[in-house]
Amino acid sequence: KLSESNRNGFEVSALSFADDKGKALIVEPGETVYRTFTIKNTSEELQELLQLELDKNADSVFRIINGEVKEAKDEEGEDAGVLPVGENPVPWNYDQDEETPLTVAASPKRAGVHECVLCMHFKGYKEMPLSAGGGRKAQTFVMKRHISVECGDRKMHEELKPTAVFTGKKKTAEQRFGEGTSTQHVVHFQRPRGYPTVLVRGAPSQDKDTLAQEIRQLFAEGKLQEIKAKVEYAEKSFFFREGETRYRDYKNLFELLLVVEEAQMEADVRNFDMSNVALIETHGRDRDERGEASYYLYVAGLGENRPSVVIGDKVLLSPRAHPERTFVAYADRKDLRQDAARGNLKIKVSAKIRDAAVKGARFDVRFTINRASLEIARQAVLHSNELPLGLLFPSRPTDNPRQELVSGKIRPINFTHQKGNEINGLQREAVEAILKNDVKDAPFILYGPPGTGKTETVVEVILQLVLDARKMSRVLACAPSNTAADVLACRLKRELRFSHHHDSQKMIRIYSTTREYGEMHKDLKECSNWDGKKEMFFVPKRDQIVNKDIRVVICTCFVGGQLRDFGVKKGDFDLVIVDEAGQATEPDCLAPAAAVLGDSEGRQNCGRLVLCGDPKQLGPMVLSREAQDTLSKSMLERILEMRAYKKHRGKYNSKLVVRLLDCYRMHKDILKLPSRMFYENELRAEGPPHDRLQNWNGLKARGLPIIFEGVRGKDMREGNSPSWFNNHEVEVVRDYVKQVTAGAGIRPQSIGIITPYRKQVHKIQKALGREFQDVSVGPVEDFQGQEKLVIIISTVRSNRHFLAFDRAHRLGFIDNPKRFNVAVTRAQALLVVVGDPKVLYHDKYWGELLRYCRDRGAYKGESLEGIEKAEKDDDYDAWEDQHLISSSVGLEGNRDDHEGPSWSRDG
Ligand SMILES: Nc1ncnc2c1ncn2[C@@H]1O[C@H](COP(=O)(O)OP(=O)(O)OP(=O)(O)O)[C@@H](O)[C@H]1O
Ligand SMILES: [Mg+2]
């Protein structure tokens, strides 16, 4: 085992490419930098330097030069010369106190951290004691030094460097503020006009909500075991009962889980409370007629949804001078998102606080959770008995004749305008099964691997309904996330245009009133609920949704669950489709169906429920450990496990379930690996060859449109944000964007960049600037359901130290099959992965992709040889901790110090 320390009296001076302040130097590609160090013998014995050796990692980046060298011109000098490294021994004798200067020259050519180990082999002589025979004895030993240099675009690194030293989360006096607010004097301030409120019918007021209070109490007392026991009890009855009692068990279980999850959110939001802060003035024009004003609060993590605040959310302010008072303020309506990226939360305050704020008062701030989506889900569960039991627990399917949702024969519509595209057999089976609607109650499930046309099939179903002038069926199409709902809406809109129905407004995309203009897909403005005059999304009335023109409503599950509160009646819709259903918790998935299907009496003509998705892609996000086991299983997944949905004699019952297998999205080589890893090699490449970039000269392996670029980067954080970024990867990603746009003529709109951390999203957006603002950058969650011609993935992590943590908390990209699967299956024609080979090599999933690329010559970067052989090396780990994370980052920390799943739920 080697040691970094000095030994046997030999001293090697410090050796690092850093500036005077110890900050790493960024060397531009092609530049050479020099660092001189000395080796000195401080012992009384004669010692010998046998050999200097740079390990293989040095590639052509590092050289050792004899003597002192400061600049390139010295290198030409007489004494200086490159030492023969590695092969010939370099015997030098060192007398006492003798020292020699040596120089390390670094000329990195590629972005990232370059490192190697310098090994110095010495021979020393030791006077032996008489007892051991006396005389001098030779002894060889090795000393080593890690050398690293950072290479990149200096200007970009300067622009993206941490804005503030990472401080972690401060736990201070806010605890005092967090407790006992109920006894405080709360100064209410009426929600300003036009601010959204989500009305939830039937929701108990908070102090009447006994279950919530009980759970909250257990939480406060730290009795998590008791909560766990309750959940387990409810699960038991849920899974073993039969018959009608099941409604009750269903409600008991899911209501409990939702309440537990809410208690967890409430506990988590406390982490963001702030104490002793001032309000910052905004421009005067924000003052409105009631004399209320808007102020900014600086909230560092806001851009990463920590905390997550949407328009109209309550923020509680308590003046330091009058801690017994609490003022209510509301997250402002205008530019909330835009300001949030900079950490500014705009809030509307009442005239009363304004007066105090003007005088420079300081406040303690408490955030509240937006419980609307949880309450919607809970109401869905509580009203689940209005749905037929077979919808929740489909057992043996029974016939349901004469319930067709369309009149006449089914002729494909969606695929007719795209030359060469044809609806395939399985897709057609699914469309027909859904529209014929001839089994009673049971949900229809359409599932299958990425890119197999699930969403496309949903579009076809909707078109069939919309363009059928006789039956006039109405469909509610939902998805758990806004991005997935937008994908559906955009495709449907395009198809409607092709079918010459653009003038009749057949569809409406309803956004939540808590969203802003900038969060709407720009192609959907005309068919959305945007009110241009008031500059906000309006709450549609029943006759704006249910009328003779509009036949399809597209929204998130959350908004779908609110339709009843908008006045929509049961029976208004004939079909509810949830796309990406695998990403929703069961209550979220149920919400749209519970709002519009079934009825409290006869359960005639209940309407049909269709769930689409892929259980191998991302599942629902659940925070509470106690609720996780059950709540993170989607309804899609649960129902697929039921007997009626399994293969019998090698075949599915296509009245209930269709599994698609032909992939149209991806180039065949991009598809190969995920197909093998997650779908038993069953996925078949179909449709267009997606070969547009197959011969692009930027590829490492001609003909194979995948690149794995290994970049040793550096984990960084800033301020009190737990989110990570890695500027070396940002640079490489930016360069790829430039290359594919300039070199291959790809439009920015056709490029997507996926990365696990919000901070990295912001840094990449900043580096891309205005020129490339149409490139979509986001976390995997936002990409589920989407596709792009070119996908670039930045995996961020460079320090192995954090991997165990990431793993334990299911964070980031490592050891996360579902995230991996979604990320690598979005690209049609080119997939680029930028990441640290040392970290990724040992990951089950990324490692496989890395080796897949290496074996086919598509890997770029540091050689993998060293990594393959690497054994556990504590010295190396210590070195890594020092160098591959920015200096101020603490290594330990609890869950709050790392970016977790964002606890906001998409509204
Ligand atoms: N029968 C078909 N012929 C030609 N192209 C098709 C066909 N079906 C789907 N496609 C195309 O394949 C691509 C992927 O389809 P789609 O997005 O619907 O897949 P998906 O199963 O919903 O994927 P994901 O699981 O990622 O949501 C789309 O570009 C779509 O237009
Ligand atoms: Mg899809």
Automatic annotation (TrEMBL):
GO biological process terms, semicolon-separated: regulatory ncRNA-mediated gene silencing
Single GO cellular component term: cytoplasmic ribonucleoprotein granule
SUPFAM superfamilies per the UniProt record, alphabetical: P-loop containing nucleoside triphosphate hydrolases (SSF52540)
Region of interest called Disordered, as start-end residue ranges on this chain: 887-907
DNA2/NAM7 helicase-like C-terminal domain segment(s): 632-837
Record domain Helicase MOV-10-like beta-barrel: where: 287-367
Pfam families from the UniProt entry: AAA_11 (PF13086), AAA_12 (PF13087), MOV-10_beta-barrel (PF21634)
Record-level Gene Ontology MF annotations: ATP binding; hydrolase activity; RNA binding; RNA helicase activity
Source superkingdom: Eukaryota
Catalysed reactions, as listed in the record: ATP + H2O = ADP + phosphate + H(+)
EC number: 3.6.4.13
The keyword Heme is annotated on this UniProt entry: no
DNA2/NAM7 helicase helicase domain mapped to chain residues: 423-526, 546-625
Compartment annotation: Cytoplasm, Cytoplasmic ribonucleoprotein granule
Keyword ATP-binding belongs to the record: yes
Keywords: ATP-binding, Cytoplasm, Helicase, Hydrolase, Nucleotide-binding, RNA-binding, RNA-mediated gene silencing
Biased composition (Basic and acidic residues): 893-907
PANTHER family named in the record: CANCER/TESTIS ANTIGEN 55, CANCER_TESTIS ANTIGEN 55
Family per record: Belongs to the DNA2/NAM7 helicase family. SDE3 subfamily.
Record protein name field: RNA helicase
Species per Swiss-Prot/TrEMBL record: Hemiselmis andersenii (Cryptophyte alga)
